[in-house]
Amino acid sequence: MSRRRSNRVTNSKFVTSPGRVTIIDDCEEDEYLHHRSCWKHIAVLNKRVSKPKRAKELEILKLTAPCFYDECTRRGRSKRRIKCKYLASKLRKKLNSKAFVAYLESFSDEKKNSFVYLDCLWFSMYKSENQNIRSSVFDSIKTKQIFSKKYVFLPIVYWSHWTLLIFCNFGEDLDSDNTCMLFLDSLQTTDSSQRLEPDIRKFVLDMYRTEGRTEDQRLVDEIPLHVPVVPQQTNDVECGSFVLYYIQRFIEDAPEKFSVDDMPYFMKEDWFSHKDLEEFCDKLDSLGTIH
Length: 291
Fold this sequence. Notes:
Layout: H1 29-34, H2 39-48, H3 51-61, H4 79-82, H5 85-88, H6 97-104, H7 109-112, E1 115-117, H8 122-126, H9 131-142, E2 151-158, E3 161-168, E4 180-184, H10 192-210, H11 217-221, E5 225-226, H12 239-253, H13 274-287
Parallel strand pairs: 1-2, 4-5
Antiparallel strand pairs: 2-3, 3-4
């Protein structure tokens, strides 16, 4: 049976990088030396590094992992910033992914046996030029037995943005209509799916080869990648919360037998409301999953 790649989101526009950040009063020199992954720190870099070196550094920093600023030892933030209602929103708090993994344990055994959750940094580590780092990713994946699961959740953190990749029925025959990938993005105007697809397909092929699978490379390369139109974020920081809620809702709503013919199922623009997301974040907050 021949396969064709699914249609992607069309008529999208790239989102330009944020302009120069002016609020950097709580970013101290000693912190900056150990942490350079968010746009605020890039602004600091922009002020303190020579132009030739800065250009090279900026290109590297744009592709780094998410901002872990809250985990750095530093002076207390200014009261002016803390009092800002927008910054104090639960949707802007840092996500504790380990606590979320623990939260997933609350599902029934039947649900838990159908899926596995991969670390959100593994994809960015896979793109490292260091072969030892790349190898460590697949050593970790081997322990997850992904080809025995219906669904595999791989959160991707790249360009300081969270998206969700779901592998569906990877243990089945690739000629079937049940095997596919889903790419859920709360900021689809960035065209992340199209820009990441080449690397996603390399990742999947390497994953098959590392597991000792013998499927034809052509069939692996042609696994459909679907990009359903799902609820979208309304500011620049909700993407992580959206990814966690996509996982939560997908586990609850996924059919017993997933088929590409029945797409997009529940994954539509009105899948859930922003109020639903806020209530979900309140629940995570009470469990210590966001802080």
